[in-house]
Amino acid sequence: MSNLTDLPKIPQRSPLYTFYSDRLRSYLTTSYMTPLPLKDQIRALQELKLVKSIRRKLKKYKLILRETDKSGVLHIGRIIDYERKAAEYRQKTGAYEELTSNPFNDIICNVTHLLNQLKMMKKISEWQRSKLIPIREKTELAYKYFLPKSHKKDTPLRPIVNTIHTATKKISQFLDKLIRPLFDRFVRQTTIVDGADLLDRLEKYIEKG
User: Fold this and answer.
1) How many angstroms separate the Cα of 71 from the Cα of each of 17, 147, 149, 176?
2) What is the pLDDT of residues 117-147, one digit of tens each?
3) What is the distance between the alpha carbons of residues 195 and 102, in angstroms, rounded to a whole number?
4) What domain of life (predicted)?
5) Can you tell me whether residue 38 is helix, strand or coil?
6) Could you please report the per-residue DSSP string of 147-177?
């Protein structure tokens, strides 16, 4: 790998340097320093007032506003109904339980300890360990939330688990890079990636008769 610090340099007096620096300055000025037209300022204030009004009404009447599962529209429901359906889902599936204490510190310590052990056992390098170690300030607990299925009777809820900033996220990404090529190699022929891939496979199937 080439040294990333040894980058090509353009002399500051070069016409090319001046050209691109002027364009960059103009772009930044236009994007971030040009005042909004009066019409847009008025509209922004009106929208802010509307948002505050909606928040007050939701709080006053104990309502909850959520984006629906598939249609992408907004759905308003009673908080008590959401809590009841969420509790019923946990009880029915037995897949989740409500935490009574915060396990964040324990998770950080356990992941860090395991990575240090792997480093000591020479299973991973120091570079890999440092890349996989969770950063406390940027790490969050995984959490579950629900999206309403407004297209179904009684508006059931679909559970979504958010793990984007969890302590094991970097490890998951690292393993995916290692395993993904093997997975794609052996199961690609039986895997449909998306709608376009499905249509392409159907066309090839029809061509073969």
Assistant:
1) 49, 11, 9, 31
2) 999 999 999 999 999 999 999 999 999 999 9
3) 41
4) Eukaryota
5) helix
6) EE-TTSTT--EEEEEE-TT-TTHHHHHHHHH
Smallest CA-to-CA distance from 132 within 150, 114, 151, 155 is with 114
Torsion from C-alpha of 7, 11, 16, 21, nearest 10 degrees: 80
Q: Which two tokens stand for residue 196?
A: 């376009």
- Spatial distance between the Cα atoms of 129 and 184, rounded to a whole number of angstroms: 26
Say whether 107 sits in a helix, a strand or coil: helix
115, burial (CB in 10 Å: exposed 0-12, middle 13-18, buried 19+): buried
Tallying the residues shown for the chain, one arrives at: 209
pTM assigned to the model:
0.62
What are 5's two structure tokens?
């610090």
- Contact status, residue 165 vs residue 174, Cβ threshold 8 Å: no
